[in-house]
Amino acid sequence: MTEVKKATAAPGVFSVMKYASAVLIIVYVVLLMFQTSVSSRSFDTVASAVEDSLTASSLKERDGQRFKRNFGLNSADYEGVLYYSSESGMSAEEVLLIKVSNTAQVRKVTGAIEERIADRTDAFEEYAPEQAKILADAQLTVRGRFVFYAASPDAAQYRAVFDSSL
User: Fold this and answer.
1) 82, containing H or E segment
2) Which of 25, 6, 35, 2 is nearest to 142 (CA)?
3) Could you report the per-residue pLDDT of 112-134, keeping only the tens digit for each?
């Protein structure tokens, strides 16, 4: 009688793969939670910190009408909107902070911002490449119900202020 041997992989390989997969899933969940962390800070507290960082800039605070014209969004639909932009039409500089009322609004807001960046990049590419570069280096982030956008040579600094204010 001939004995039939079953071909099997080393039992340790499957154990290692199982644990490696579990570790990767845990790391992914932790990173996801960190990225979308919810802040207990009020809009006014976060907006005040961002505004303080803008005092030395040439940006001017804008009203809901300008926000609606530039982004196609109604400021009354959100818990808070802070919008600053350059007085010059030849400048791509602007800073926007929005606290959405619910997480479903995040996609609408980020889509409007991305559309504005694309439109303005197209407009500036030919005659103001330095402004197109500012748009290419813009900072856009979502943290919980806060959406932050900055197009400026100081965009990274403004984002750091935003991040630390949460």
Assistant:
1) strand 80-86
2) 35
3) 999 999 999 999 988 899 999 99
